[in-house]
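In the previous chapter we treated chains in isolation. Here, by contrast, the input contains two separate entities that must be folded as one system, with a combined length of 229 residues.
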Amino acid sequence: SQKIEQNSEALNIQEGKTATLTCNYTNYSPAYLQWYRQDPGRGPVFLLLIRENEKEKRKERLKVTFDTTLKQSLFHITASQPADSATYLCALDSISGGYNKLIFGAGTRLAVHP
Amino acid sequence: KAGVTQTPRYLIKTRGQQVTLSCSPISGHRSVSWYQQTPGQGLQFLFEYFSETQRNKGNFPGRFSGRQFSNSRSEMNVSTLELGDSALYLCASSLTGGGPNTEAFFGQGTRLTVV
């Protein structure tokens, strides 16, 4: 069956360190993968999109890698700050009936401690 | 430009009732998707509308339905509410709903509580 797996346990790190979050998927062949941030009680906010032919994408302190052989994406936040504390969701496209739909993982909660 | 607007923000309904939620997408966006979010299941895809047509549907019972109007505003309806329908319902708009430029813009959600 199709699955998107993110670490269900919260990730606790110290301010200034690099946070690394993992997204693994099975039985999907996504053309691209996206990462979103969600704060409590709010809708997810788009962060980054990476295509299947891109190995790495960067945006300010964020870096995403996409390995279609391993079926895995890694999301890094360098020089993390307490304001980065949130739940991070990965999403990938799934084609159904000729049209794409975005399917989300359950998310990983990140807590950055001062 | 204005973001995605969902109304109402909070709802309390009784089992057996029906409810209608509304979503106004970003101007120019023609795709609207709906998701149900619960602590145990995460974000579950309900359906997607594009130019008034349902293009995709998730694995939800027929009690969940939706529609999209010519101005791209969308509504979703849940009939015969059950306790398990309590969730945050999120609407997302995007330009085309598919392809590489398909980042989704979410509303704040409607928190539905069924008692």
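Chain A touches chain B at residues 31-32, 34, 36, 41-46, 49, 51, 89, 91, 93, 96-97, 99-107 (CB under 8 Å). Chain A has no helices and eleven strands. Compare these points with the single-chain example from earlier in the chapter.
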